[in-house]
Every structure is written in structure tokens, then in C-alpha cells.
Design goal:
Hydantoin permease; Amino acid transporter transmembrane domain-containing protein; transmembrane helix; membrane; transmembrane; glycoprotein
Length: 498
């Protein structure tokens, strides 16, 4: 997958003098805890706290497992690339006309031309599985999958990115609509608005949402036609804003609960909300597609496995804390799809207008900076999917057609619906399942099969997943397929009843 954005941990490591391993923990947390976290409390309340706690814990474990699969596949891809270069160099050496004396002179004058082979031939140890070169998931798919598998990979990535853009395109106008149309008189916390309610004069809330969506598309849509670069300061700013906002929401909810003023009485279990919670959880734990940018810059990768495990434990605790404080602080029936909006019109929780507006507009700032990056990434993936070796696209196709097919569908979806819970649930349940479960399992399975004849069974991949047995690969695939069938059946049955 192609993207021109610089990872925030690389920025902090290079410009703020933090070690990559230290910053990696923060970056991975920041990477996962995004828009999905804002929709988690509503899904948590819908499914009941016992069912939600059990499911989110299990899905966190499954996501950790597939993350270790991707890291192992990255190491295997680096080994494959080193082996190919060695073969190419050996072939070129075997056909050269240099004499022994020439080789000695050449070795003295140009020692840097073959550093790997010189070490190998002198008896030095080379770790083939060292993750020194960034190999994106698309490149790994090209190395280990056949043509059909590669196309399926890009289709899955494209569907996921479309869902991501649709969620972003809906989240920003919803936040703007709630801030502009909401009742901020400190008595609106117990009011649930409808789309047909008045916003300004004859303009309904639904009309206001579509106006804000149109402005959003006009202002940020043109970035799709260019490359999104030099975003390091925006990423640092939005990262700090995200931490401040989440910390504020948790503390404010805890204070209200501590004062025995909480209105939440969540159900223990409600299995009707499980399918949507599944999609939200998968979406909320999504990081597998960004692992190459996260892991590769770390100089000392000895403790990467512990880093990933610590991150997932930390993220799981954060999600549980955020969701439990939300469902016991607010009435479950009044929880917004975007959790920040519960603080904008309820002065019982937050009576400082500036902070209420900050939380209400927080998704606008953070999501608006990510939208162009995701759009450019999707556009590049479209170009890669239809790429022909040695061929180039006409200017109109490259600069107009691909950006349009990137931008128009998610905006149209956002015009049709602004149900964020459903958008996140569907995106996570289908495309998210492919990226988080099926693709990592297939990558590690075929990577092992490709390398065994070349490296031998005795070759040790130091980044091998703790779940090295083939049982775990098949378990992940069967789990993903069964979940897709369950979610699809539930959607069909629900539509039939309605």
C-alpha cells in the first residue's frame, strides 16, 4: 500500500531525539486509538458490558496474534530479498572475466560494492531475517501470492479505505452539525434529536449535515488530486490533541460517577448488538497495514515482540476504561455514535463552554488532517491495481479519473447515511476482517512455504510468531470466515424483520 505520510514515531525519533523503541509504544497506541475508539462506547452499551468485555478481550488477542504474523512475514520478505540479491550477484560474478589478481585489486578499490557477500564469503554471520528494509504489505503480497491473490489483496485494501473515507466524511459534518445545531443551554443532555428537527429557521439538522458535508468535500477533496506530503507538524499536533481529548473525557466521566451522578444502567448482555460490536472492535484494533512503517525504523528490534504485547495490553485497558466510564456516566439510550458529542450539550458533565466546544470539534481537526492522506493512499492503490509493467497512464486518467473514483463514492455514501456506528461496523466486519485476519494469516503461511525450500528447515527466523504452529493460521482463517457468515446472516435477518 502506497502512502506519502511520514509516521509520527519516525518524526519524533528524528526531530525530538527519542529512541524509536520508546516512541514505538506511543505511536502504535496513537495509531490504533483513533476514530474507532470514539464509536466504541455506543457499541459497548448496545451489546451489554459482560458480552462486550469478553468480545473485546478476545478480539484484542486475535489482533495481537495476526500482528505477530505480519512481523514474521516482514522478516521473511527481507530474507527473500537478500537471497535474490545474492543469487543475482553470484550470477554476475560467475560470468565476469576478471582474473584472480583483478578480483584482489577490485576488492581493495571497491569494497563497498558487495558488503553482504564479502561478509558471507569471509565467514561472517549475516542475519537474513533482520528487518532492515521496509517491505509494505502490497510488496509482500506480490512476493508470496499469485496474481489472483495480489488482486484480492488490493481489492480488500481499497474497500477498507473506501469505508475509512466514508466514516471520515460523515464524522466531520456530524460534529459540526451537533456543535452548530445543538442546544448548549445546559439542559440538553437528556434530549435526543431527530434529523427532521430544526437547526436554523427552515433548515433541518439533516440539511445542515449535508451543507457541512458539501463544504468538507469542497475544501478537502482537491487534496486527492495531489500528493499529501510534509504533514509532520500536523501529525504531532493532532496526536497531542487526541491524548488531551481522551484524557479529558475519561476524567470527566470518572468525576461524575464518583459523585454518584451517573445516569448509566447498561445491560449485562444483549446479543443483538454483538455483530456491530464485532465490526467496531476489528476496526478499532486495526494496525496491521501500518506495521512496516512502524517496525522497520526501530534500530534495535530485539524487544519488538514485547513492545507489541505491551501495546495491546495498554490499548485493551484503555478501551475498557473509556467504554466503562462512558456507559456508567451516560444513559445508554442517549449515547452518541461519536462519543465526544456527549460532552458538548451536557453541562452536568462539563460546564466550561470552551472545553465543550473543544471536545465537540476535536474530531473535525484530527480527521480533517487524515482524510487527504487516506485519499491519496487509496488513489495510489487504484493505480497499483491496474498497473501494467512498462506502461504509464494518460494525464487525464492519472490526475482526474483516479482521484474522482477515489473521492466520489465515500462522499455519496456519507450523503446517504451518517450512521457512524453502522459504517464503522460494516467496514470493520468485512474489509477489516480481511486486513486484520485473512491477509496476515495467508502472508505468514505462504511466506513459510516460500522460504523453506530456499533457506532450509533449520533456518531460524528470530521474528517468528509465538503462534508458530500451523493450527493458529487455520484457526484465524476459520474464525474470520465464520464471523463474516454470522454478520451477514444477522444483517439479512434484521432487514427481513424490518
Amino acid at each position: 500500500m502506497c502512502t506519502s505520510a511520514i509516521p509520527i514515531h519516525v518524526i519524533m525519533g528524528r526531530y525530538l531525539n527519542f529512541s524509536f523503541l520508546q516512541v514505538g509504544l506511543v505511536y502504535m497506541f496513537n495509531l490504533i486509538v483513533g476514530t474507532g475508539a470514539l464509536t466504541m462506547p455506543k457499541a459497548f452499551a448496545t451489546a451489554g458490558w459482560v458480552v462486550s468485555l469478553s468480545l473485546i478481550s478476545f478480539l484484542g488477542f486475535m489482533s495481537y496474534m495476526t500482528t505477530t504474523f505480519v512481523i514474521e512475514a516482514m522478516a521473511a520478505a527481507n530474507a527473500q530479498l537478500r537471497w535474490k540479491r545474492r543469487e543475482e550477484t553470484d550470477d554476475s560474478d560467475s560470468t565476469s572475466d576478471y582474473s584472480d589478481d583483478d578480483v584482489v585489486v577490485r576488492g581493495r578499490s571497491e569494497p563497498e560494492t558487495k558488503p553482504i557477500l564479502s561478509i558471507q564469503r569471509s565467514g561472517g554471520h549475516v542475519d537474513h531475517f533482520d528487518i532492515a528494509e521496509r517491505v509494505e504489505m502490497g510488496q509482500m503480497a506480490s512476493m508470496f501470492f499469485n496474481k489472483v491473490g495480489v488482486n484480492m489483496f488490493y481489492i480488500c485494501i481499497i474497500v477498507y479505505l473506501y469505508g475509512d473515507l466514508a466514516i471520515y466524511a460523515a464524522a466531520v459534518p456530524i460534529s459540526l452539525m451537533e456543535v452548530a445545531c445543538g442546544n448548549h443551554s445546559c439542559s440538553a443532555g437528556s434530549v435526543k434529536y431527530n434529523d427532521t428537527d430544526t437547526c436554523w429557521g427552515a433548515v433541518t439538522r439533516k440539511d445542515a449535515y449535508r451543507i457541512f458535508l458539501s463544504v468538507f468535500a469542497v475544501l478537502l477533496g482537491p487534496f486527492t488530486f495531489f500528493n499529501a506530503q510534509k504533514t509532520k507538524y500536523l501529525q504531532i499536533l493532532t496526536s497531542f490533541m487526541r491524548w488531551i481529548a481522551f484524557t479529558m473525557m475519561i476524567i470527566l466521566a470518572l468525576i461524575r460517577i464518583g459523585k454518584h451522578s451517573g445516569e448509566g444502567q447498561p445491560p449485562v448482555a444483549s446479543f443483538s448488538g454483538v455483530p456491530n460490536l464485532f465490526g467496531v472492535c476489528v476496526y478499532s484494533f486495526m494496525c496491521q497495514h501500518s506495521l512496516p512503517s512502524l517496525v522497520t525504523p526501530i534500530s534495535n528490534k530485539k524487544h519488538v515482540g514485547k513492545l507489541v504485547l505491551a501495546d495491546y495490553v495498554l490499548i485493551l485497558c484503555f478501551y475498557v476504561l473509556l467504554s466503562f466510564t462512558a456507559i456508567f456516566c451516560f444513559d445508554s439510550s442517549l449515547l452518541h455514535d461519536m462519543y465526544t458529542l456527549n460532552f458538548t450539550d451536557n453541562c452536568k458533565v462539563l460546564d466550561i463552554p470552551v472545553l465543550r466546544y473543544f471536545l465537540g470539534l476535536f474530531p473535525v481537526f484530527t480527521i480533517s488532517t487524515n482524510f487527504p492522506i487516506i485519499a491519496v493512499t487509496l488513489c495510489n492503490n487504484w493505480k497499483t491495481l491496474f498497473h501494467r509493467d512498462g506502461g504509464t497512464y494518460p494525464w487525464v486518467v492519472d490526475r482526474v479519473v483516479f482521484p474522482l473514483i477515489t473521492l466520489v463514492p465515500p462522499v455519496v455514501v456519507a450523503f446517504c447515511t451518517h450512521n457512524l456506528e453502522s459504517l464503522v461496523g460494516i467496514t470493520g466486519a468485512y474489509a477489516g476482517t480481511g486486513i486484520q485476519y485473512i491477509i496476515p494469516a495467508c502472508l505468514v503461511y505462504f511466506a513459510r512455504r516460500h522460504l523453506e525450500p530456499v533457506m532450509g528447515r533449520d533456518a531460524i527466523n528470530k521474528h517468528q510468531s509465538p503462534f508458530r504452529h500451523a493450527f493458529w493460521v487455520w484457526f484465524v482463517v476459520l474464525w474470520a470466515i465464520s464471523c463474516l457468515m454470522f454478520v451477514t446472516a444477522n444483517i439479512i435477518l434484521t432487514d427481513t424483520k424490518t
